[in-house]
């Protein structure tokens, strides 16, 4: 079988197939020169750090379970601190307890909420808590997670744990508080990996058959399975497979499914993506900080959406002789700042940090990781769209899709879709998986 896409979902799917069907011949094809997708590492100031996702939600087990399965148990670490601030109206203040920016206490309109149809998170919060809460709390949170906008992001897709508590017996803040209460064992919400979360896909892929720089341009059905057209038009080759998992973003997945699952292809083509960048700075003398970083409401008009004090959040980063921190920039349909060159982007980030911290931030080294089209936007109706995509794909034996476009942009969620995709193709072929 073939897995297309070498991000965390792709390597996790391939790994799961080899576990379920040890005799299967599994080939992973990645179009770029490297594996990992949105998990990446780079050296900044002499220290290798994450330039993509840098934390794993620990209350979903998929990511930490996979890390343990590939020998990273001893390198799983907990953050030293996760207390964030809000840079709003010229001051840094403690971020109140919220669920995706929705306060878990305080004044609301007192009306019990029932969600009969999907609405945007911004519309829901504005109706019960006011637009200022949307602008000052919800927007910075959703901007950090999705690089999106509160009045465009689906409540059902982005905050499903809240929806379960909107049963007509609770107000919005009461439902947010109920959704924040752990249903199982407590413990740290997040985990990291010493040396960077970017190590995870590389460790997962260590025992897989992988081809990089292998762009898959076409996918067709055959009497025995599938044919993939791989490589440039002047040097293309055709690969036969009896099962295929597509672990690619929505648009390339739509292109590959055009002749195989047309309805799914049309739905996938409608999913928009946001571009953003992670700016990592190494500083010798940083002004005083507290907590693990801060978020910035977009109404403040700043370049930086948020900053993470990596040196304070992760003990292994703090051991370095330079102070390493990172900022994120860029939102959906507001990517103009990303058109600037790296030096300009670094200067803008350092200027915002200097203003926020009340002293000069002068990097001695920096790195700009641009994620063009990096984050899928879960528009209102996304859950129903995904259901239609899966229904169409499931009509085709031996075919499955996975990745961040479906059920969550976090690493555990992407891995969860990969595990389900692997189990589907193995089950649908009843153990007959070959090449």
TrEMBL record:
Enzyme Commission number(s) of this protein: 1.3.3.15
Top-level taxonomic group: Bacteria
Principal place of residence: cytoplasm
Example GO BP: heme biosynthetic process
Catalysed reactions listed for this entry: coproporphyrinogen III + 3 O2 = coproporphyrin III + 3 H2O2
Coiled coil: none
Gene Ontology cellular component annotations, sorted alphabetically: cytoplasm
Subcellular location: Cytoplasm
One matching Pfam family: Amino_oxidase
Keyword terms of this UniProt record: Cytoplasm, FAD, Flavoprotein, Heme biosynthesis, Oxidoreductase
Domain Amine oxidase span(s) in chain numbering: 8-425
A GO molecular function held by the record: oxygen-dependent protoporphyrinogen oxidase activity
Cofactor: FAD
Pathway assigned to this chain's UniProt record: Porphyrin-containing compound metabolism; protoheme biosynthesis
InterPro entries to which the protein is assigned, alphabetical: Amino_oxidase, FAD/NAD-bd_sf, Protoporphyrinogen_oxidase, Zeta_carotene_desat/Oxidored
SUPFAM superfamilies the record matches: FAD-linked reductases, C-terminal domain, FAD/NAD(P)-binding domain
Entry function: Involved in coproporphyrin-dependent heme b biosynthesis. Catalyzes the oxidation of coproporphyrinogen III to coproporphyrin III.
Protein family (similarity comment): Belongs to the protoporphyrinogen/coproporphyrinogen oxidase family. Coproporphyrinogen III oxidase subfamily.
PANTHER family from the UniProt entry: PROTOPORPHYRINOGEN OXIDASE
Protein name in UniProt: Coproporphyrinogen III oxidase
Species whose genome carries this gene: Nocardioides mangrovicus
Species classification: Bacteria, Bacillati, Actinomycetota, Actinomycetes, Propionibacteriales
